[in-house]
Amino acid sequence: MTGVANWLNQGAALPLALIGLPLLGGVIAWLLGKRYALQVAAVLVFGLANIFLSLALFLGGGADVTLPFAGYGFEGHFVAGGMSSVLLVFTSVVAFLLARYSVSYFKGDTRGGVFLLFYFVSIGFVNGALLSSNLPVMLVFWEGLLVCMGVLLLLGNLEKPRAAIKMLWISGVADLLLMLGVIVTIRVSGQSDIAAMGRLPVEGLGAYGCALMLLGAMGKAGAMPFHSWIPLAAEDASSPFLAVFPGSLEKILGIGLSIQIVTRIYDVRPGSAMSTLVLVIGAVTLLFGVSMALIQKDMKRLLSYHAISQVGYMLLGVGSCLPVGMVAALFHMMNNALYKSGLFLTAGAIERRTGTTDLRHVGGLGRAMPVTMTCFVIFGLSISGFPGFNGFFSKELVFDAALESGVVYYIVALVGAVMTAISFLKLGGAAFFGTLRLPRGIKQVREVRAGMYLPAVVLAALCVFFGAGNRLVDQWLFQPALGLTESFAGWPENWVLVALSVAALLLALADHLYGRKKTGGALGSADHIHHAPGLRQAYALAETGKLDPYNWLVAAVGGFSRVCQWVENGVSWVYDKGVPGLIGGASKLLHRGVNGSLTRYLLLAVAGFAGVLILFLLILL
Amino acid sequence: MTVLQWIPHLFLALPMLALIVNNVIPRARIRTTTIAMSATVAGAQMLLALAGVFLLVESGESAVRFGMIWDAGKNVGYFQTDLVSMFLLMCVGMVALASALTALTTIDDHRGSYTNLLMVMMLGLNGMLLVRDLFSLYVFLEVTGLASFVMIGMYKSTRDLEGAFKYLALSALATIFILTGLSFLFIKAGSLAFDALTPALFSGAGDGSTLLCWAALVLLISGYSIKSGVAPFHSWLPDAYESADTAVSIMLSGIVTKIAGVYSLLTLTRLFDGIAPLKTVLALLGMFTILVGALLALAQKNFKRIAAYSSVSQMGYILLGFAAGTNLGILAGLLYLFSHSAAKSAFFTNAAALEKQLGTLNIDEMGGLQKRMPITSGSSVVALLSTAGVPPFAGFWSKLMVLLALWSAGLKGYAAFALIASILTGAYFLRLQKKVFFGKPNPRWDAVVEITGGIRVSEILLTIVTVAVGLVFPLLLLYLQRAGLI
Amino acid sequence: MNIAIYVCLGCMLVFGVFSAASRKLIISAVALAVVSAALGVLMYVLGAHTAAIFEVSVCSGLVTVIFISAVSLSNGDKQIEAQDVAVPARKRRFLPAILIGAGAILMIVAWLTGFSVGTPAAAVSGANFNDVFWETCQADIFGQMVALIAGASAIVVFFKESENE
Fold it and tell me: Less CB within 10 Å around the terminal CB: N or C of chain B?
């Protein structure tokens, strides 16, 4: 007991509570499955408690606690330092909002309880991962998140769990790479604790460690080539799932760790090979994601491709290895969590009311769902980078970092911005503006419950706030998180960049109008890009999954499994046919020699005698 | 005279007595009980020999010498039993008992003849185990052979006579070999008593007589091999076993080939200890036998023929045990002999049961008999497992000992081969079991019931023996170790 | 001496083959008697006088008498003739010729190499009959007894009509 008291004195209570309380909350929320009001209450209580605790940690100057329980020589070293406490607070706020939304979304649906259970458990794991200073312990929490996601996807579609399997495979591989990276890093540094490591040089074995860890972290965040499960999940999973996991939690963990790797664990220099690796991955992800998003007709799929694409921006920031890049990445990640989950919330609202998010069947809901529409507009403007909103500021920082790393990256980012804007113009136009289209069987729609739109409203408000008050945000959050003294907030100094961004937006608008006139509606406004020569073939390839590394992996695994089967068949043949055939053949051969003839018997006996004689002679002489 | 000293007399006296009783008392009186009488004699022999083994071990002597009616006045012992003989006498008793019990059911005709012949055969076998010189061994060998020959052809059907005749022909060949060999030995040694035959006969100047001794060895090996059914001298065995009545097959496979054949070979190895080619040739013969017997058993369709080829194969193991040449090897061979006697007799008893209840022995026609004849099936499975060397049955221990004896004698390759060949044993037996007792039931046998009477008693008895010996084997080994025999 | 041995052996061989190959039982019986007689002479020549006497009297004489009387009492003679073995005549003469030829070759070889068996007389000569009979050869005596019983049982089994038991 004195040990526990000591721990508490050290301030261990807070980190432990941050991990344990959500777990408890999840169980309680699950148990309260049938009673809606109690569930809401539980969610509110635990969500607010989470916020409260993380604020306490943040404002209280952090904590540094070591619990020697993990065994195997690994300690449970929990540190709530700069980045972790900031992320904790941010996560807790977003998590609270999304939890409230989820409860409302699943009202009357039995799946809600299970979802809340795993959601809260995931929050607990995320808190733990953020708090862990010891890499192996962090991995444990990391994996816990994977398991929760896997179970939820599985429960979403038990008959054909394609999405679950794909997710488990892809994320599993990413986590495996991360594990390998951790092992190599521990080997190179001799430490297993981030706090105790200095900045390791990126050379020799260290290079592998760095690359592996980065790949793992980026894969978690959803960068290419670890992305292809997200659109698939968009079909099977519910909007709350999409909002929570690929929308916010994964990015927080992934990008957070990436920043740590590049700044604290390894000494990655701008312009080095590692930096180029990250930049390239970021650029490719950005472009690919948004290109695919452009042609989607289903809202959730479109949003999920965008989620992939946004990671590209963050990685451009990380890859630049400059302070401005880090700020850019962190800012963009937070913004993305805000507006991306918000967008998923609106998609969920539509789904709840009309039963589908396929824009071919539903659209023009602006008048029927005004609140949702307003939130959507704000989110859309943010993600497109409209001046004044949070997305604009973080994107400008990304452009800045990208330009410093190389012109080509900047151009890619700009093109991506154009295409982002186009796709959101299309999305908004089709979903909320224009004539009301409803799927068969639905006569009318109205706005969703307060429990569902309020979180979206709060998120929208936060988007505005992060935009208008970005200087404050920078002061409070980014500088402590990254340990920087200079501020990158405020309107960008480079007016050329701003002008180019605005021009990009105008270009997007023009293109949208052109496409609209061509096809007569917002939905088809991006079709001319889809069917453009050159792009059409590329799109066709992508659609059929030929560009999906997962499919390559599956094919390779299939090939490997065929080889194994071949070997197995060979071995079985030896046991089932080869040896018995040999013996059976010998047996039949001998058997044919026995024909009951006495003469033959006698001759055999005499032959035997001769044989014995010969043996004797051989031995004696 | 101590108990130990008058027990061996009974081995000669009891069968003689039964013989006299059987022929003197009018047929009508003892017709039904004549076989029971022979069973009693067999059972008595088994128990007496068992007691004899323990008494002999306790007494610390190596042998008991005695005469036919009174004991030797001079130093010449004409009958002698040592531990090996006593043990084998017990085996004789056990198998004869099984045979008699089976005969209660299978032999309707010629009951008196059966008893006569069984007693004669027992006299012959006992005599072989009790004599002190090679010529007497030969005489009793011939007696046994004659009795077997007659028993095979007892019913005088064409098939029986054919089997008997084949046996006779090969027996005659064996006789030629054996007698020629004995005469060659006699030339050099001057006497055929065991005391006079030593390995020294084979050394000496390269004159004709030493060469003759080597030739004698070759001839004796061949002759005794024919008698024991070792490949390639085994050809008479399946035909004889198949055509004989099952009670007779039990005797033949269970003990005759062993005493007449393998025991004689054992005697050779014990007399001419240290003659290397002898051991090597025996080991090679053993290996060859195991292989040939097993391979041929795989192709058979008749229950009894499978059993016959299995006997051939198992003889190889016994031979390997003896060929190891050490005390452990001899012990291993003897124990294997015992466990095989028990298992194979049980197996033939099952054959008798099947023949009686089904009327056919073609395994392709049988199927799924396990439900209808559970005791037969159970005893068959036990026999199979014991022969294949599965713990905890007696066969496992004896096979293990054979392998150990071979390994410690340096014949590692043979040991490995013997072990691998066990798979073949399992193969043909499993095939048999599957076709006969397990597998899809043949609707033809839906009305079949379990066998009763003597056959059932015999099956159960032999199964109990196999299991019990298997379970107490370690104790047995400890006892032998304490007695200084291992 | 040696010539006598070879002659006896030769007679035994020829008449033995003849006895086995002949198709009339009576001829076989007579040939067998000749074989036994030749064996008796051989034994005498080798110095086993007592054995020679027993051999000639019992085997050659007594057994042949029993044999022939049995044959004439039953109708076996005709039965054997009735069963015709379907072996072509050429083959029938083949085997006996081989056997006799092989025997002849063996004898020639033995004569050329000067093969001699020596006299194993040391142990037996000069011994008292009583001693020999009751002491040294008890096992033999017993064996003989059992052999006789065996033979009798065999005959009984083979030639008894199956009773209605």
Answer: N
